[in-house]
Amino acid sequence: MSVQIKSKSFSEEIITSFILQTSKEFELVLDPFVGSGTTGRVCDKLGRSFVGYDLKNFF
Predict the structure, then answer these.
(1) What digits encode the pLDDT tens for the residues 6-47?
(2) 52 and 41 in contact (C-beta within 8 Å)?
């Protein structure tokens, strides 16, 4: 059995919109599929705390 893993990066504009709609400044945002780290970068720009992790280490 083979498992294929697909990676998808989202633009900072999409992530920004989502974070602004779902969190307030200084709140914590969790990204359990951190991948390329876009969510973390956006959180930093928007004044949110960020915790991210990923099971794969190839990103």
Answers:
(1) 556 789 999 999 999 999 999 999 999 888 899 999 999 999
(2) no
DSSP strand pairing (49-52 vs 28-31): parallel
Whole-structure pTM over 0.70, yes or no?
yes
- Going by the DSSP 8-state scheme, the letter that residue 55 receives in this structure is S
C-alpha 33/C-alpha 24 separation (Å) is: 21
Q: How far is CA 37 from the centre of its chain?
A: 6
- DSSP codes, 28-53: EEEETT-TT-HHHHHHHHHT-EEEE-
